Amino acid sequence: MTAALAIPINPTFVQRLAGLDQAQKLRLGVGIVLFVAIGIIGLVMGRQAEWRVLYANLPDKDGGAIVAQLTTMNVPYQYAAGGGAILVPANLVYDTRLKLASQGLPKASVTGFELMDTANRFGMTQFQERLTFQRGLEGELTRSIQALNSVQSARVHLALPNQNGFFRDQQKPSASVLVSLNAGRSLDRGQLAGIIHLVASSVPEMDPKAVSVLDDTGKLLSTPADNVGGLGADAQQLQYVQQIEQLYSSRILDILEPVVGRQNVRAQVTAELDFSQTESTSELFKPNQTPDATAIRSQQLLETAGAAAGANPPTGVPGATTNQPPGPTTAAINGAAQPLSAANGATGANGGRRESVINYEVDKTVRVVRGSTGMVKRINAAVIINHQTTTDAKGKTTTAAMSDAQMEKLTALVRETVGFNKDRGDSVNVVTAPFTLEKNTVQPLAFWQQPELLDLARSFAWPLGTLLFGALVLMGAVRPALKVMAQPVKISETERERGGQLDAIEAEQPDRPLLAGPASASAQPAEISPADLALEEARKLTRDNPAAVANIVKTWINGEAPA
């Protein structure tokens, strides 16, 4: 009996729980279940990983292959809104991409010369080898073009004709490039020329004129070189004019802003350029020079020895002409060779003859002049400066126009900046006027609108929400039931009578050692045995909770009592 009475007070909790009505039991059970569920949900949501995009805009075939591979790799995945992207946990993005790339996924990615590594050399025809090489070259060019910041994606098509030695006129290769640009980006003339030069330099004997570049809207970006008078040339000229005007405007702002302030000056420049192409050819001949400054091209000298006096008979046609003495020998300084004649010869005293033919060089100058395009014909600059703002000793702020001397100095600075030329017809106007610009003051964000605070609130939203909801369930459903169970149990008169009978039965047992009460405290022994302590606890339980003890006695009477 002593061992049975030493059981803890658990029967009391069970009895109090059994004393609750049906509604209170239901509320207590639902509250406990909700509290446990909230704790589990909060724990799971608090440990949920952040999802990042693994791949986006994939074809259905590649998307299905990637999802199947992710399932095999036991990698969790999700679909973004609209199914346009596959999401995985943030800490697994790069690892998963590397593993999928090692397996050749996604297959729609650009492949280059690695096609040559996987090609089956045995049984491959020459056409297949050439086609594989062409595909690899197109892939490498696509990768290079996609490396540009403005290009989102690109495709390169090469037309490589089959060169045959029997053809006299070989066909030249050509290429077409289709580029898709990022939002808000565009290709300038320099970048476009770079793409064309890249493709033309990668293919042997390809002319840059044979490379066509289109955007995703079908607009031809590359302009043929021979289309000088077309719209492409005009657009390029307009862009060049805008660059020149922006250059002059930035020069004016750079020299005036340190003087008048950053927001106190505005400048506009209009440049008139000459894009006409001129070419002139002139051929000049220098006048005849002096004999000592001439250059001899060729010279011919013919001399004939004469016989003794009287040996040579007179020759020639008798008449007045032959009886005249020969004139002096002359030759043109700048002229062609003169034919041999009597005037070119000289007869010696002994009847000998001497002839000389001299050809001189003729000066000739051929000059070809080509006028350059894009020459500045006229510059017109307009500059407006805000009124000066001054603050006196009392803190009063006033604005006033600049003086004439200051305006003359600023005008001189602007003229020197733009390279003012009066003969060219340039004009520079600098005026001062009050600005009416509204100052856009940036209002500081409130404390609760700070991005750092918002991120911190999002990170603590689930834990705090879970804790508050759990506390609400605990205080609204579990706590009222616990308060009811904590109330003292009301003992009926019958239970009190049974408790008194139990006390009488215990008092009649002769072998039970008597424990001294409060009145006989002096007679209590100094040491109490464990059996006495157990008996005292049983008595205390009988006094405090007679109903429970009565139920125990009922169990003993109705059933088999323990030995």
Notes on the structure:
Helix content is 40%, strand content 18%. With 563 residues, the protein is α+β, with helices and mostly antiparallel strands. The longest helix is centred in the last third of the chain and has 36 residues, at 451-486. The radius of gyration is 57 Å and the shape is elongated. Mean pLDDT is 75; it is low at 1-10, 225-232, 333-344 and 508-526.
Key descriptive features of the protein:
elongated; alpha+beta; three-stranded mixed beta sheet; 16 strands; 18% strand; 563 residues
Question: What is this structure's SSE topology?
Answer:
Layout: H1 2-5, H2 10-18, H3 22-46, E1 51-56, H4 60-72, E2 78-79, E3 85-89, H5 93-102, H6 115-118, H7 126-146, E4 151-159, E5 174-181, H8 189-202, E6 211-215, H9 231-260, E7 265-274, E8 279-284, E9 296-304, E10 345-347, E11 353-360, E12 365-370, E13 375-385, E14 388-391, E15 397-400, H10 404-418, E16 427-432, H11 451-486, H12 493-508, H13 530-544, H14 546-558
Parallel strand pairs: 5-6, 13-16
Antiparallel strand pairs: 1-3, 2-3, 4-5, 7-13, 8-12, 9-11, 10-11, 14-15
Helix pairs in contact: 3-11, 9-10, 12-14, 13-14
